[in-house]
Amino acid sequence: MGTSQSKDVTPKSISRTSSGTNIQDKSQFIYIEKLAKFLGQKSAEETCNGRSISKEVFTKYLFSSYPDLSEHLYKYFISEESHKHGVSTVSSKQDSLPLSVFKQQCEKLMTVINDAEITDIYIKVYSSNDELTHDQFKSLLQQVYRLSMDFYPDGPTRTCVHLLKILKAVVDSAFHRKETVSVSFLAHWVQANCSRLLLGLHRYVVHTLTTAYHLIGKAEQENSSSGLELTTPVLDRELKFEHDENVMLPLSEVWLLSTSLPEVFTRPSEHHTPTTSAISMSASYFISKLIGSVCPSHWTMLYNSNDQGLAANRFLFHVLSYRGPTLTLIRGQDGVQFCIGSATEWRESHLYWGDENCIIIQILPLYHIIDRGPKLLYFNSSIRGYPKGIHAGSDKKAPCLQVDEGFSRLTFCGIPYIVGSIEVWGCGSVKDRNNQHDVKKWQVEQAEQARQVKLNPRDWVNNPDRYLLELAGRQSYATTST
Q1: Is 349 in contact with 442 (CB distance < 8 Å)?
Q2: Distance (Å, rounded) from C-alpha 218 to C-alpha 215?
Q3: What's the pLDDT score for residue 438?
Q4: Where residue 246 falls among pLDDT bands split at 50, 70, 90?
C-alpha cells in the first residue's frame, strides 16, 4: 500500500518555474475537461457544432473583461494547431476552436517549463507570422499594464498621463529603429531587460482557465480572478499628483520597474492563500501555488530634491541610515532619466560597494538595463584625495553614470546633462523606515546636547581648541578664560 502511494506522487508530476510557480499532476485538468464540455454546449446553441468553441463563447465565459486578450489567445490556440499539423489543417475553421485543441493548449499553458518559455508564448500570442510590429508589441504592453492596474491593491487605477511616453521608451529600445522584429529577438530582449513582464499575464490566464468552470452560472458572473493579486509595488503617497509633470515616479514607471528589478525590491510583505468556496482544498492549494498570490511591498519616499534641496548634504541626511533596498531616480533636464537600485544601505566610501542585486536602468528616452552586479556603486562627499559625487558602473575607471559633487551635472557614457531633480524611494519594510527615524532622532538629540554643553574656566584651560585659537593669534581668549 505504501508502494502504491509513492507511485502517485513522483518528481515528474510537478513542474517548477524560476518564478516560483508549481504545477501539480494532470488530475487537476479535470476542470479543463468540464470547462471544454460546457463551452462546446454553449457554442452548439449558437452556430457551431458541439465539438468546437466559437470566439464569442470563448470571450464571454473566459475573458469578457479583456476582449483584446481573448481574441489573440483564441487565434493563437488555432494557429498552434495549424503549425503542428500543417497550415491547411484548420485554415477552413478559423471561426471555431475544436474542443480537443482547446484542451491541449490549456494543458500546455499550465505545464510551462520556465519563465523564458512563458515570455516566448505570450509574445507569439500577439505576433503575426512569427514577427511583431510596433503596434502589436505596444498592444501587448498595454494589456499587461491594464491587468496590473486592475489588481492594484488601492483599487483599479488605469490612468497615467506618462503611460504613452513610457511605452514608447520600451518599444523604441526593443525595436532598435526597425519596423518589425522576430518573436525570438523580442523574447530575448524582454528576458534581458524586463524578465517578469509577462509572468502576471500568465498567472491571470491560467488562473482564469482553472477557475472559470466553478464560476459559470453564478449571479452576475463573478470575476474569475477573485483572490488573484499581482505584484506592482504600492507607493506611500497620494495618487492625485499623477498629473503633475514634476512627478518622477508615476505609476506606469512603478509597474515597468517592478518587471526589471531584482525581487529584493518588490519582495512581498506577507503571503496569504486565496480561498474559493466552490473549489476543494486540494484545488485551492494548487491554484494558490500556481498564481503565486502575494501582497506587494510598499515603496516610501526618502528624499525629493524638489522639496528638500538638491545637494549632497541633503541627500546624505535623508538617505543614510536606511538599511533597506533603495531606488535612486535621477532626471536630467534634457529628458533623460535613470534609476540606480541598491539593495544595501548607502554609504560614504572611497571604494565601490554593493551586492549582486545592484542594478542601473535607463528609463527615458530608451528603457533598458545598463549594468548590474556586485560592487557597482560609489559615493563620496568628504574623503579627500578621491573622486567626489556618485559613480555607478562596473568599469571603475569610466563608470557609465556619474553625478558630480555639487549634484548639478550628470554624465552618462561621457555625455553631460544638467541634473533636474533626484528622488530616493525606500523599498524595505516599515521596520527599516522606523529604524532610520530612530537613528535620526538620536542624532538630533546628540547634536542638541553638544550645543548646550558649557565649559567652565578650568576645563577651558586644558581644551585643545584653546591652543589652536592662541596659535591663530587670539591670545585674548587665554587671558579672559583664566
Answers
A1: no
A2: 6
A3: 73
A4: low
Whole-number Å distance between alpha carbons of 16 and 402: 41
C-alpha cell at 68: 483584446
DSSP per-residue string spanning 155-218: S-----TTHHHHHHHHHHHHHTT-SEEEHHHHHHHHHHH-TTTTHHHHHHHHHHHHHHHHHTTS
Tell me: the pLDDT tens digits for 133-146?
999 999 999 999 99
Q: Place domain 14-236+243-295 in its CATH homologous superfamily.
A: EF-hand (1.10.238.10)
Q: Which amino acid is at 296?
A: P
> Shortest CA distance to 106 belongs to which of 116, 121, 124?
121
110's grid cell: 499550465
Express each pLDDT in 357-376 by its tens digit: 999 999 999 999 999 999 99
CA 372 to chain centre: 16
Contact indicator for 123, 190 with CB cutoff of 8 Å: yes
Phi, psi of 425 (to 5 degrees): -115, 135
Q: Which one-letter amino acid corresponds to residue 130?
A: D
Domain ranges of the chain: 14-236+243-295, 298-428, 432-481
Distance CA 139, CA 170 (A): 12
Strands 294-295 and 415-426: unpaired
d(CA 89, CA 106): 20
Dihedral angle over CA of 143, 237, 269, 324, nearest 10: 110
Mean pLDDT of the 226-242 span: 56
- DSSP secondary structure letters along 387-454: --EEEESS-SSS-SEEE-TTS-EEEETTEEEEEEEEEEEE-S-HHHHHHHHHHHHHHHHHHHHHHH--
Helix, strand, coil percentages, rounded to 5, for the chain: 45, 15, 35
Residue 237 burial by CB count (10 A; 0-12/13-18/19+): exposed, middle or buried?
middle
